Amino acid sequence: MAPPSTPTPLVIASGNAGKIREFAALLAALPLEIQPQPEGMEVEETGTTLAANARLKAEAVARATGCWTLADDSGLAVEALKGAPGVQSARYADSDAERIGRLLRELAAANRARGAEGLPPERGARFTAALAVADPTGRIRLEVEGHCPGLILEEPRGGGGFGYDPVFLVPELGLSFAEMDKATKGRIGHRGRAFALLEPKLRALLG
Ligand code: ITT
Fold it and tell me: What is the value of pTM for the model shown?
């Protein structure tokens, strides 16, 4: 009988506890030993796209740890705000509550301006997660993107999730991300959709 194989270490290159929780659930069925990134490590996000920033984080953390590394750069693009906050989603304000506050204020102002021009309100938005996997030398081996369309609510709803979840409505379900159970967000959310594309490739590479 072949000896059981040792699980491959995989570092999650993120300091965002909400993302790390979601990845732990998504990766649970894979033969991997999930590890956090080195404490205090922060990679400057100088890229102009989510994909570029995911690559920067995966490369830097893989080089620092000598382990396979998964990074995620994600963001919320709001149509009436011409795609903002987008790649700046984390830097839009200092806390989740302030980021949501700024988003709702700016969207209300944009919709007042639309109203003054006789246009209907526009609340469409889209979450994107760009994932990158680097090998232990820091070379990027896999890249995928997942998207989830929705609408921005006028007020936060629900107590689950993290980040902008309470103001992001998925109309088909009539629920905000913060009102969904983890499995539902994992299935239809941007990160879950990106991960569904990544999983078979990750299994082939590390399995
Ligand atoms: P790391 O770079 O350390 O992973 P971060 O929070 O800085 O953590 P990003 O640079 O990717 O992550 O910024 C993404 C922003 O979008 C951040 O404010 C998140 O809270 C928010 N965000 C990302 N995914 C989200 C989700 O599934 N639900 C709600 N907000 C999300």
Answer: 0.96
